[in-house]
Amino acid sequence: MSALSNWREPGAILLLSCYEQGHQPFHLASLSAILQQDGFAPHAVDTAIDTLSDEAIQQARFIAISVPMHTALRLGEAVARRVRQVNPGAFICLYGLYALLNADHLLQGTIDAAIGGEYEEPLLRLVQAREQGQDTAIPGVRTREHASGAWIARTPFLVPQRRQLPALDRYARLQWGDDLRIVGYTESTRGCKHTCLHCPVTPVYQGRFFAVPQQIVLADIRAQVEQGARHITFGDPDFWNGPTHALRIARALHAEFPEVTFDATVKIEHLLKHASLLPEMRELGCVFIVSAVESLNDTALLRLDKGHTAADVRRAFALTREAGIVLRPSLLPFSPWETLESYIELLDFFEQQHAIEHLDPVHLSIRLLVPPGSALLAQEKSQRWLRDLDAENYTYRWQHSDPRMDKLHERVSAIVAQGENCQADASETFFKVKAQALAMLGQDFSPAQALSAYGPRDVLPHLTESWFC
């Protein structure tokens, strides 16, 4: 079966997602809305949930694959290679942060275009140009023939169209004690006004962010509540980039759906600066906040330009506990500046604070990624630990000055993976990791004894799928 001749026939445009951290793919829903408004009839498939058929690939003339982060790109490039085999004549575009950062590599082979930043309008213009047989020199669209940076201009926001997507009950749930809640996902802002040096948002948005109109966000939430959502994840890089905007949306959400809870991502420095907002956030239904703690090593935090210190992290834990909100940290414990001693101190902190339950074990194994275009590349001191570009893995290689840390990373990754495969208790995995770290110092440690001494574990609100970048 050949590709459809009419670009506006159903299936002529195929939208694919591979991984969006256990959520129904917002990026497909948002792109579907702007394409449908222009008269196209895209077909959307979440390959993390459903099977992508050869027939769907063969029918398509234009295939767009969402790759917002590293894991999504790894999966997305594999899908693109399959698409090229099944339908050699299809035009393949990857869109998302990691598409643009890795465009030089991607355009050498499988794909025809890459888009980063605010992707909806450039992608629509690209589809229109292909339909009309026009040149694809479009701002924000990188091709083999035309170099273009990110399109960082305000998107004409529309309510995401989710009708084609898998049902919400097929994705991660919120587990809160014995209660399992269907989870929806939306975004109230795009980009970030902060420029943490390791973050992939930084080289693309360069400190800019855009607020999504409140009526758009609420309409998207409303549609998901109608589909059964009882909890909403706000996927903004930082929900408090615009705290007034965020609070207005949270208030409106609670006023319309008082039984619906939510979670959001907030920087440590914002938790301290706007600590007075935390009690109201809890009253409005916020059950946990994700924050990029990364490390408790002040040297590492300074090199990453995180804007907080280890003391700030301790204060943030105290403030959120006082407000009745769970703080769930994301970590980056393997970087050139972490030491074996500071890694163990990080583990000690969570054990002593009785906060192991706040962690997803995968975060104990996260290693610094340095994609092409990373702001870290411009740092003079980076040349001491940077090696060559591993384009096929979308990152520059780097080596720790202490060989024990690279060995520890390999062993911790294996322990975490085994724990995930066996669905082991997170605390058991934690203490196995600690035993491995202490073994590097020649110290004996009994995970079983430590687990017994730790005592009862709280069942804190969390999503049932561990997420990672």
UniProtKB/TrEMBL annotation:
Matches recorded under InterPro entries: BchE-like (IPR051198), Elp3/MiaA/NifB-like_rSAM (IPR006638), rSAM (IPR007197), rSAM_CUAEP (IPR054699), rSAM_horseshoe (IPR023404), rSAM_sf (IPR058240)
A GO cellular-component term linked to this record: cytosol
A single MF term (Gene Ontology): catalytic activity
SMART domains: Elp3 (SM00729)
Start and end residues of each Radical SAM core domain: 178-411
Listed cofactors: [4Fe-4S] cluster
Source domain of life: Bacteria
Keyword check for Secreted: no
Keyword Iron: yes
Entry keywords, A to Z: Iron, Iron-sulfur, Metal-binding, S-adenosyl-L-methionine
Full protein name: Radical SAM domain protein
Naturally occurring in which organism (per UniProt): Ktedonobacter racemifer DSM 44963
